[in-house]
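Schema walk-through. Below, the input block comes first and the output block second. Nothing else is stored per chain. Lengths vary across the set, and this one has 104 residues.
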Amino acid sequence: MKIIKAYAAALLLGLTLATAGACASTATHESTGGYIDDSVITAKVKTAIFNDPALKVFQINVKTYKGTVQLSGFVDSEAAAKKAVEVAGKVPGVQSVKNDMQIK
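--- output ---
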């Protein structure tokens, strides 16, 4: 009976470690918690851009990966692009902002 309990404990430990390893981040894959954090940052950046009357939220695409926000899309002026970068940079949790916006 003790052998069966030992095997069951070893199996449970192995499953726990395998599950935890599947959720860990790597250089090319984000952890589950990191993905959720980035989703929250993306939502906050979109809200901040939406709340700024000088910016048109539908022109700017926002993606976040490991705290780095990427802004892309087409904006009306260089001033609008700079303003979007400034607004995104002020959002809590944003580590850096990458500007891939184009002026139309």
